[in-house]
Amino acid sequence: MKFVLIIGVMLAVVSPAHADFQDGWAASLRGDYATAMQEWLPLAEQGDAKAQNNLGFLYNFGRGVAQDYAEAAKWYRLAAEQGNANAQYNLGVFYEQGRGVAQDTAEATKWYSLAAEQGNANAKNNLGTLSGQGQSVTQDAAGQNNPGTLSGQGQSVTQDAAGQNNPGTLSGQGQSVTQDAAEAAKWHRLAAEQGDAKAQFNLGTMYYAGQGVAQDYAEAAKWYRLAAEQGDGDAQYNLSIMYANGQGVAQDYAEAVKWYRLAAEQGDANAQNNLGTMYRQGQGVAQNYVEAVKWYRLAAEQGDGDAQYNLGVLYEQGQGVAQNYVEAVKWYRLAAERGFPNAQYNLGGMYYAGQGIRQDHLRAYMWFDINGLSGNEDSVKILDKIAKRMTSADISTAQELARECVRKNYKGC
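Given the sequence above, the corresponding structure tokens read:
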């Protein structure tokens, strides 16, 4: 969520009260929030809405004062009741999150609506999400809530910056289960047309999924591009998927690589994994296994199962890295524990061959038995082959190990 700190318009002739407000703003820019509090408190107590909103901000984040959500809500409310749009938005956030007040979606909607009627883009976007989901989950580029933005004279300075999806899956899918999709689309569009990147991303996702609007991949790509050009990592990733698949745009692997890279450099694990695959396959870039390893590793270290599996394959085959079966087993196991069938299959093979780990027919049988549940006929054939090297008691033990592993959600097998 973004909380907004307001600065007044500078005048040629500055009144004493306005001078105090500007002195407070100047102090806040220096990080001297205690002085900002001293300058703004008298103004806020006299009813200055901008100063009241800013006091709410200081209490919200504990800047120059002890953090106190209830006190923040008090000052936001005083400013909001005077019609201050940013305070109305901030109070809406408080009601939505239950911060300093009892959580109340109806109250959140009320204050967001008042702010939106004055043109507040953040409020419009949140109204769109509330309409679409029954609750608002405004995210930054990495998919995490962004808890504060200072806004001054039309400029925003983010104070706290920032899915995990399968490769080829758009960020945001499954996140817009609509209760009133058309209403959601309306509010997202209003905010998107004001240039709000997250609203542009949300509107793109609605066009992609056909929620609240007719499905239109070209429109989805249009809105994703607008958000992506503002640096929204989710939009960059989704736009790259559309270029890779030729949805709404002509298929263009080079463009896909461009947007994957931008999202990957922001730390998006899916983009990192997909960029690794583009390097591995030589799509949109010259084939380069070393680069593939680099990007797979970055995603794998974030816990991306696809990347863990892919990195295991490169270690097993010695592509882009020195062949290392122990490392291959390590990465296969991590992906297998996340439930990735291909990793479970390959891990079974490593146990069967004794590569990178002590040969163990019981564990090999276990992993192939688990993989067979995914419908892989090759696993069934291999099980017959392994069974010929095992006693009936061993097979029963291995089958019980497989059942226990599934019960444990593949962890510690």
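The CA atoms of residues 208 and 240 lie 14 Å apart. Try to locate this feature in the token string yourself.
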